[in-house]
Design brief:
Layout lengths: L7 E5 L3 H13 L3 E5 L2 H10 L4 E4 L8 H10 L8 E5 L4 H9 L4 E4 L4 H62 L6 H32 L5 E3 L1 H11 L1 H7 L2 E3 L7 E3 L1 H18 L5 E9 L3 E7 L7 H6 L18 H11 L4 E5 L5 E8 L3
Parallel strand pairs: 1-2, 1-3, 3-4, 4-5, 7-9
Antiparallel strand pairs: 6-8, 9-10, 10-12, 11-12
Helix pairs in contact: 2-3, 5-6, 6-11, 7-9, 9-11
């Protein structure tokens, strides 16, 4: 076995013959071997230079192998070193104890040389794979952070000039003294497109802030939160003229009011767009086992099949490309919010029987 960079193994055993034999066979295979005759020397050796793997006896004076392993696993710098126990103890209890405190393998004495080499090689290969995956995950995490920062910066930089454009177009559109009817219509189309772009930017900024922001939950006045959402959607309510049913009393739940308002806005806007003609929206709040409350919006739309339900709550998914005026960010925002608040979310739907979108929050104590 050849290593360009020699892997290091520490052998811990109070029997010199075992150390000599293991050191010889591992050294012949290209490993860099160090040894320790007891637990205290083992910890000092490992702390001086972190090895790639440890072969550890159990029965030793003063500090046994179990105690050594526990020390290693409690040390942040050493806890990831693979530990293989080599012991004459063969009871199931001893093996269970070894694995429960963090060992990756257990070899019973008297051992076979081939078995030791195979186990060592296997776990060193696995350790190398873990390190590579950790490096790739770290690199991916950093790339995601950079992309998120870039997206947030771009969205923020676009927000202000686009807001100015939306306002200017609206002023021009409402001034019928300077434009004829055809120009008024073109301005109307431009203003709607600009407003849609502005909404997308707002939601991108919201997605970014939810990912980064940490909040403290508190009891929510759900009636007030729902009213705020309804106020924001008043133009849609005027357009669709829905029937709206609300609970007489809202139970008190713990959450973060501004985020929960976003959840209601997204659920209600979808119910308006995909509901019947006219839409019928029924809001509800039902206590569930485990101290949770399930809040929901039921509509009278066409419903969703299993395939369509599976695509929901993912990035940039649109329910209906023909009728939807949205752009697919809404339900992914709901998912992010509920993930941060440790709540559940989902949809229950049968084609032809409407849909029920829900989320859960803990009841206030």
């Amino acid at each position: 076995m050849n290593f360009e960079l020699k892997k290091s193994v520490v052998i811990v055993d109070d029997t010199p013959e075992n150390i000599r034999l293991l050191a010889q066979i591992l050294g012949e295979q290209g490993y860099r071997v160090r040894s320790a005759p007891n637990g205290e020397r083992a910890l000092a050796t490992v702390q001086k230079e972190c090895p790639d793997l440890i072969l550890l006896d159990i029965v030793m004076p003063d500090m046994d192998g179990y105690e050594v392993c526990r020390y290693l696993k409690e040390d942040a710098a050493l806890k990831d070193i693979p530990v293989i126990f080599i012991s004459a103890l063969s009871e199931v209890f001893d093996k269970v104890t070894a694995f429960s405190i963090g060992a990756v393998d257990y070899i019973t004495k008297p051992f076979q040389i081939e078995e030791v080499l195979a186990r060592v090689q296997t776990h060193l290969s696995l350790q190398e794979m873990r390190r590579k995956l950790q490096g790739q995950n770290y690199q991916l995490h950093e790339q995601n952070r950079e992309l998120e920062a870039f997206a947030h910066t771009v969205a923020h930089d676009l927000k202000n000039p686009l807001g100015t454009l939306v306002g200017s177009l609206e002023i021009m559109r409402t001034d019928d003294t300077i434009l004829d009817e055809s120009m008024q219509e073109m301005l109307h189309i431009g203003a709607k497109s600009a407003q849609k772009m502005y909404s997308i930017i707002q939601e991108l900024l919201l997605l970014s802030s939810i990912r980064k922001e940490e909040v403290v939950t508190s009891p929510i006045d759900m009636a007030d939160v729902v009213n705020q959402a309804l106020d924001r959607l008043s133009p849609m309510f005027e357009k669709y003229q829905p029937e709206l049913l609300l609970p007489d009393v809202w139970p008190l739940a713990d959450g973060y009011a501004s985020w929960i308002e976003e959840v209601w806005v997204n659920y209600l806007s979808n119910a308006l767009k995909y509901g019947g003609q006219p839409p019928r929206l029924e809001l509800d709040a039902v206590p569930e086992p485990g101290g949770m409350i399930r809040f929901s919006v039921r509509d009278n739309g066409r419903g969703l099949d299993a395939e369509a339900q599976a695509r929901l709550f993912t990035e940039f998914t649109r329910l209906d490309k023909v009728r939807a005026q949205g752009h697919g960010l809404g339900l992914s925002i709901v998912r992010r919010i509920m993930d941060k608040l440790d709540g559940e979310f989902g949809v229950e739907s049968v084609p032809g029987q409407g849909s029920l979108f829900y989320f859960t929050l803990p009841a206030s104590q």
